[in-house]
Amino acid sequence: MGNSDFIKRKFEKFDEGFYQELKEYGIFTSVNAKQELIAEGDKVKFIPILIKGSVKVYNLNDGKELVYYYISPGESCIMTFSTIFTDKVSRIYAVSEEKSDVLLLPVSQFLIWLQKYPMLNQMFFLEYDSRYKFMMETINKIVFQKLDHRVLEYLHERIRRNGADAVKVSHKKIADELGTAREVVSRILKKFEKEGLITQSPLGIGIIEKR
């Protein structure tokens, strides 16, 4: 998909004047895998919108990652969006999971657009609301759901997001993102394998039993 096509799809309800301003002020760029888009403590200068790839949004607690969510194509980082109204620094890290294409909207111009195009407020509010609900569901799972269910949910989500039959991810990475120990995840995956729920191979972890 070209940049113009992406703009038309993402902002399909906006007029031609907005499209032209977006092309003038928006910055289209590519980032490599594991490249940092923003770090905790940074001044937020751009609102990122992902065109292609995947971006992980997380924080660090005693050196351990606390993953908030992943940004998929067409989505923005709502937690950077929320800081521009308070003039505060970023409270999160946003790092690309793979080679990704991103549209960067300068904050100074974005604030002008919010007043000039009220529909932009609505669009980002709806995305904020959706992300907030997702994070509340995640908290409920952490509190109430057993870890083995959370591991299976994690695998389903990664496979869905990657659009593949298997996901190549280490036991340690799963453990880090779910806030547990690698040994615990390894035991759970071994149990799933014996039960015929998953396969583990050099290609990654695949789910046999679809829900």
Automatic annotation (TrEMBL):
Record bears the keyword Cell wall biogenesis/degradation: no
InterPro entries: cNMP-bd_dom, cNMP-bd_dom_sf, Env_Response_Regulators, HTH_CRP, RmlC-like_jellyroll, WH-like_DNA-bd_sf, WH_DNA-bd_sf
Any one annotated GO CC term: cytosol
Taxonomic classification: Bacteria, Pseudomonadati, Bacteroidota, Flavobacteriia, Flavobacteriales
SMART domains in UniProt: cNMP, HTH_CRP
Domain of life of the organism encoding this protein: Bacteria
This protein's name: CRP/FNR family transcriptional regulator, anaerobic regulatory protein
Tagged with keyword Ion transport: no
Swiss-Prot/TrEMBL keywords: DNA-binding, Transcription, Transcription regulation
One Pfam family linked to the record: HTH_Crp_2
Record domain HTH crp-type: where: 145-211
Record's signal peptide: none
Gene Ontology molecular function: any one: DNA-binding transcription factor activity
